């Protein structure tokens, strides 16, 4: 098999595309022939040794992928050779094959494309947990989505609209704002050219958004939190801008607002039944055409470094997907 091997976690430039013996699955494991894998921000952090979980060296990065079961180990009863599967977590996805625990896999329904599946679990699972579970979003409420043209941002637009909410999408360019409108956003804000607080006020009639979906952090957080509506819920998704903001807590008091942390991976581990129910609803929405991952580019698996380079430009619309044809 061929894999991207990380022996020195100093960044994507140190990854090596190499050939290793194709392993056989042990008890409770399966071998998956990878069809597609997507690039997520934690994949960058983990090869830079900046992620909270640090796998032993050497390792193969890539946490989200789809493929076909090629071999099963002893004791595996839930999967058989030929099954279509998808998973998030555990690593090993940036290659042609991977050994993983059968318990980490999910069956992939017929009609669910491999490239869509590889771009689905993390972003849509996180966003459904954020908006529907943690944010308690209701039909008719207004959601402000920051970083709205990225992977989780595009998912947030689609899920909020599926839930019957009004969506204000904030992004860093007119081109990205146009994409957000195509995905169903009711209004957009280019936060590099306009006054963010003034535009939020104008678009909400002075009320402010009911829910803020923030995967960006940095210097956008405070002005947006100052604009949130009464009983607003500020969903902390991540910090793509790099800086972790320090919000003045008196604003939460004055607005009766909540700062709500969102950690989908831990939610899925601690509350597997609730997580499975959310994913089932998402799968149904996908089948109904209500949601579909936005894929910026499809690249061959061997072009992982090119994908990391594009990610660094902050010009990605949706997700980057690597495929084994």
TrEMBL record:
Enoyl reductase (ER) domain sequence ranges: 11-322
Top-rank lineage group of the source organism: Bacteria
PROSITE patterns: QOR_ZETA_CRYSTAL
Xref: InterPro entries: ADH-like_C, ADH-like_N, ER, GroES-like_sf, NAD(P)-bd_dom_sf, Quin_OxRdtase/zeta-crystal_CS, Zn-ADH-like_protein
Gene Ontology molecular function terms on file: oxidoreductase activity; zinc ion binding
Coiled coil (UniProt feature): none
Protein name: NADPH:quinone oxidoreductase
């Amino acid at each position: 098999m061929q894999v991207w091997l990380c022996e020195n976690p100093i960044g994507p430039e140190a990854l090596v595309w190499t050939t290793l013996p194709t392993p056989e699955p042990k008890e409770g494991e399966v071998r998956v022939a990878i069809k597609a894998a997507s690039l997520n921000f934690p994949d960058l952090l983990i090869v830079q040794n900046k992620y909270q979980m640090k796998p032993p060296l050497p390792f193969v990065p890539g946490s989200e992928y789809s493929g076909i079961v090629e071999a099963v180990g002893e004791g595996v009863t839930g999967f058989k050779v030929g099954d279509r599967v998808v998973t998030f977590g555990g690593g090993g996805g940036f290659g042609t094959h991977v050994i993983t625990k059968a318990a980490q896999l999910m069956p992939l329904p017929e009609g669910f494309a491999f490239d869509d599946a590889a771009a689905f679990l993390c972003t849509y699972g996180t966003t459904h947990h954020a908006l529907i579970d943690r944010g308690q979003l209701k039909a008719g409420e207004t959601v402000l989505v920051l970083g709205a043209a990225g992977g989780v941002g595009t998912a947030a637009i689609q899920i909020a609209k599926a839930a019957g909410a009004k969506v204000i999408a904030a992004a860093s360019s007119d081109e990205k704002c146009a994409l957000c409108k195509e995905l169903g956003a009711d209004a957009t804000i280019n936060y590099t050219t306009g006054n963010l607080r003034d535009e939020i006020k104008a678009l909400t009639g002075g009320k402010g958004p009911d829910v803020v979906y923030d995967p960006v952090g940095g210097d956008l957080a405070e002005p947006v939190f100052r604009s949130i509506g009464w009983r607003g819920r500020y969903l902390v998704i991540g910090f793509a801008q790099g800086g972790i903001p320090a919000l003045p807590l008196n604003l939460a008091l004055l607005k009766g607002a909540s700062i709500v942390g969102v950690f989908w991976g831990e939610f899925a581990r601690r509350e597997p039944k609730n997580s499975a129910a959310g994913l089932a609803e998402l799968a149904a929405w996908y089948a109904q055409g209500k949601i579909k991952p936005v894929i910026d580019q499809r690249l061959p698996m061997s072009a992982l470094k090119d994908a990391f380079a594009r990610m660094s430009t902050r010009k990605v619309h949706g997700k980057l997907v690597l495929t084994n044809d």
